[in-house]
Write a structure and sequence with these properties.
With about 450 residues, the chain is of the alpha+beta class. The chain contains twelve helices and 18 strands. Bound molecules: zinc ion (ZN).
Length: about 450
Amino acid sequence: MTDDVLSTDQVSALKTTVAGLMPGLRADLEALTRIPSVSLDAFDQAHVEASAEATAELLRAEGLDVEIVREGGRPAVIAHIDGPQGAPTVMLYAHHDVQPPGDDADWDSAPFEPTERDGRLYGRGAADDKAGIMAHLAALRAHRGALPVGVTVFVEGEEEIGSDSLPTILERHGEKLRADAIVLADSTNWAIGEPALTTTLRGLIRVVVTVTTLDHGIHSGMFGGAVPDAITALVRLLATLHDDTGAVAIAGLRSGTASDLDFDEARLREESGLLDGVDVIGTGSLLDRIWAKPTATVIGIDAPSVAKSSNTLVPTASAKVSIRLAPDEDPMDAYAAVQRHVEANIPWGARVEVHLDDQGSGFAADANGPVYDQTRAAFTDAWGVEPVDIGVGGSIPFVAAFAEKFPEAAILVTGVEDPDTRAHGANESLHLGEFEKVCVAEAILLARLGALPR
Ligand SMILES: [Zn+2]
């Protein structure tokens, strides 16, 4: 591009600068990873305090004004440094809490002792999301003393337990977080060597359905055949959630379309562990099915266990159903559709109650405009390959919270992960070569946004 906002010399100078920063970034990442900052209640929260403090210290060292805020939940770090007069402000998000390590025996090296093997750094949080914090530090360090934009850093301390106090933080501290572009570094790239921008996330509702047919349990030999039991009625109701192909059959739910990337059944089977001979379900492209269409998954049933069962017509039974939603679906509209579906499919006049257990919005970026153009250019500079737009089938509640709070900001969901990262699992790891590219891309992104005409 002849009218590019950055020259190739500026791009290669930033690559060289970041390459020189990598040993320091790696050392700081290892120090953060050694702090077992598991935000789940059952774990010692002193470590979460320590990771907030360590994050704050790294940001103070770059000259940012730093505060640690708590709004009824875990400590979050907010830091800011002004840019040149009139330059845009970019907010950089990551989280300093981590998932529990699980069973140490499942790890090939201790979860909180970062260890390199075959170009990957293993450790709980080494990728998710302490490498996200360090990518932001890389961008700040690459421009030390001459930031091209204003930067606000927000590092949350409870992402892994659902960001419960995030709405209050946004309400009370939102003005400090206001920005023209928001980089949320907590997602994944498409493959090693293939960068991605996450432009859609699915929403979610979780419902509990309770079916009752009798006011007490009765002998199945005496009344079975004429009197329905609640488990059979519940199972028949649950069976109506899908058609024969396994596609969701709840009328009125929206269905989206995913971007057109190569993703074949072999890769799906490999990544999911689907057994040979078991069908793939649903209709449409595989990526539509896992990123953009609704799902209905029965995740739990309350009924007598096999071991404790007896020859009884069971009077009442419940199921919890997790329903993923198309990225642009309104969760309350979806809940209304589920209620209508249940009412229309009640077997044998059974009493049925539906209760909403949880809900969260999805996200669908309008991934166009100058900020997205510069982001794609920065990724291309770093990898030598243009990024692809991907969806993520899961839900990240904080993305919707930011999109709602700052509707005029461009929301960029980036990340340090790759398909082998195993975030949340045993042997979580960061690909160190890809990590450097993530750092380069973010440093170049700040330069590009600062160079946009204004
Ligand atoms: Zn994360």
